[in-house]
Amino acid sequence: MTEDKHSPFAAQRRSGLIESTLYWSLASGKEGTDGRTESSDGLPVSTSDLGMISEAAALLRSGETVAFPTETVYGLGADARNTAAVEAVFAAKGRPSDNPLIVHIARREDLDRLVTEVHPVAEALIYAFWPGPLTLVLPVRPGVLSPLVTAGLDTVGVRMPDHPVALALLRAADCPVAAPSANRSGRPSPTLAAHVLEDLAGYIGGVLDGGAAGVGLESTVVQVQPDGTVAVLRPGGITAEQLAAVTGTEAAAAEPAAGADTPAGASGGGSVPVPPAAVPGGGEAGAAAQAAAGNSPAPRAPGMKYTHYAPRGALGIVRGSSAQRVAETAAGLLQAAQRAGEITGLLLFEEHRALYPADPAACTVSLGSLSSPEEAARFLYAALRRFDEAGATYILAEACPVTGLGAAIMNRLMKAAGESVIDAG
């Protein structure tokens, strides 16, 4: 892996030996033909895997770091009580220290040891969505976690993953596990163990390979306000519509998704300028959620402050009043970029492929159908890594509707593009 010499974060060192990162290939958690995680014998965790999971749990208890699969993406775990272990997570990722970590637990009773109170609305969300891709930001119990986990805040994000390997590891380790995504900071999150090794081999203690992640996007992060309203600090695998079905009220979005008309500057890439972005915002819901996030330099949840999920090439999001306009604009920019010597990439939805000329980019990747946002979510990060494999320097991606899971997809794309949006009219 090539180090970014201009990174604003602390420079890190490899251990020197790739073999220093242990690797366990598991039968449990491998995807079946229906996309659900299952072991070959139908049990949550196969007997043959218990020994390997126990070894990984022993590493966690000893203060080492272990990457493991969840239903969202692979996480890089460490004992959340052990400051030296948590420091190793930040070091491996090159992660800024004011970016809090999510704590993973295996049992509901574990939560009460970590937080001082759980609002009744939060309890209802736990009942509805745990185990699953929902993180709740709650008041932390003083002294039980490393202060690095909370970035010095008085709250902590906690979730219970819905993956047999993750739950087995957490139970075997018998400790709260702080686990951000198992990738270098700013890079696309890992949905395969191979992605973890690409970024972190030689940096971490071990990797449990449980196959492909099912959801493909990180958890939704929410904070319940004293009046019972829910602020979405990061969209994810649980949609705003699903939250509202439980709480009876609309959730407030802390981070706007693409779609409104507030102008903002945006950076381009390569020799082809990218027009200024149009980034949405405003409204009472946004203001309420921003209040929930607070004015502290440390964000309440991961993914709120820094550019994330980015491929190495420049990425822009193309949106417009029709798919035809988007395709025409993207095709023209890609052709100009190719003439300027760029290696081009295009991320599109399958039903729009016929709107483009043959071979519109050096690397064209489909996210599947717009009618199946679950498929797009599952393969988004792998698609962004495909552009890196192709050496793409100038990449355009089609926008998608911001309803349902599309809100989380667009959130990740906007973060990856540094808010750079091209309006096709």
From TrEMBL:
<keyword id="KW-0547">Nucleotide-binding</keyword>
<keyword id="KW-0808">Transferase</keyword>
<feature type="region of interest" description="Disordered">
    <location>
        <begin position="254"/>
        <end position="300"/>
    </location>
</feature>
<feature type="compositionally biased region" description="Low complexity">
    <location>
        <begin position="254"/>
        <end position="265"/>
    </location>
</feature>
<dbReference type="InterPro" id="IPR005145">
    <property type="entry name" value="Sua5_C"/>
</dbReference>
<dbReference type="Pfam" id="PF01300">
    <property type="entry name" value="Sua5_yciO_yrdC"/>
</dbReference>
<feature type="domain" description="YrdC-like">
    <location>
        <begin position="50"/>
        <end position="238"/>
    </location>
</feature>
<dbReference type="Pfam" id="PF03481">
    <property type="entry name" value="Sua5_C"/>
</dbReference>
<comment type="function">
    <text>Required for the formation of a threonylcarbamoyl group on adenosine at position 37 (t(6)A37) in tRNAs that read codons beginning with adenine.</text>
</comment>
<dbReference type="InterPro" id="IPR006070">
    <property type="entry name" value="Sua5-like_dom"/>
</dbReference>
<dbReference type="InterPro" id="IPR050156">
    <property type="entry name" value="TC-AMP_synthase_SUA5"/>
</dbReference>
<keyword id="KW-0963">Cytoplasm</keyword>
<feature type="compositionally biased region" description="Low complexity">
    <location>
        <begin position="286"/>
        <end position="300"/>
    </location>
</feature>
<protein>
    <recommendedName>
        <fullName>Threonylcarbamoyl-AMP synthase</fullName>
        <ecNumber>2.7.7.87</ecNumber>
    </recommendedName>
</protein>
<dbReference type="InterPro" id="IPR010923">
    <property type="entry name" value="T(6)A37_SUA5"/>
</dbReference>
<keyword id="KW-0548">Nucleotidyltransferase</keyword>
<dbReference type="GO" id="GO:0061710">
    <property type="term" value="F:L-threonylcarbamoyladenylate synthase"/>
</dbReference>
<dbReference type="InterPro" id="IPR017945">
    <property type="entry name" value="DHBP_synth_RibB-like_a/b_dom"/>
</dbReference>
<comment type="similarity">
    <text>Belongs to the SUA5 family.</text>
</comment>
<keyword id="KW-0819">tRNA processing</keyword>
<keyword id="KW-0067">ATP-binding</keyword>
<dbReference type="InterPro" id="IPR038385">
    <property type="entry name" value="Sua5/YwlC_C"/>
</dbReference>
